[in-house]
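Tutorial handout. Part one gives the primary structure; part two gives the three-dimensional structure as tokens.
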Amino acid sequence: MAIQWVALAACLLGAAIRIPDVVRGRGRVVFAALVLLSVAVGLSLEPIYLAVDQLLGGVNLANLMIRLCLYAVFVLLGVRMVAAFKAPRARKFVVGPLGIAVLAVTVGATVYFFVQSDLPYSDTGLTAFADQEAVERYSEAGRLYPGYVAACLVGPALASAVNRHTRSLHRLAGAFLALGFGMVTVFAALQLFNVDLGAGAIVLPFSAILCVVLGLCLIWFSKRRAARSGGRSNLLAQ
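Part two.
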């Protein structure tokens, strides 16, 4: 679908505008998250997926790469956002023992069910193997950690959006981030209960990506404006 290509372009653009700061040693965490997100989104596109997976042996290792990249994205954004939004409660759930345990269980389950699956040829999204229980469990595991972290970040992002003591551009960024993480949370919950979303199975998660990337870009622009006026910038822009 077109929204996947739009999401990829947004991720690449979001990473590109941060390159000058990265060269100066700033903003490396969010930049790394955007690069990894670009990889994950790119691999979701059939032409790219099939080409890369053939290089990896044609056994859908590219799909496993998507999962692991997304986990890394949520680790990086989770750590950065709880600090940027000064959210100690969210920090406890994201980087505390529970958050680490959820990440470990998710990664372990993902790798285990991938190995247990019979994936003899490349197939984008693994739809050709959807009747296998191991593949179904693999897909469920893949939504666990992103959904968990997103649920932890909705509140801090929303609080930032309604904070009248911050700049309007920063509040708008918070609104997009809250919307994006809210979509991830809803998507994970609906999939957990096996709700048939139809085209929404693609539209919802990629719309969430667009919202999150747009939010991060707005924060970056907010930082630029703050720098020109001598104000303080948000950690997400650094």
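Part three, for discussion. The CA atoms of residues 58 and 71 lie 23 Å apart. The two ends are 33 Å apart (CA to CA).
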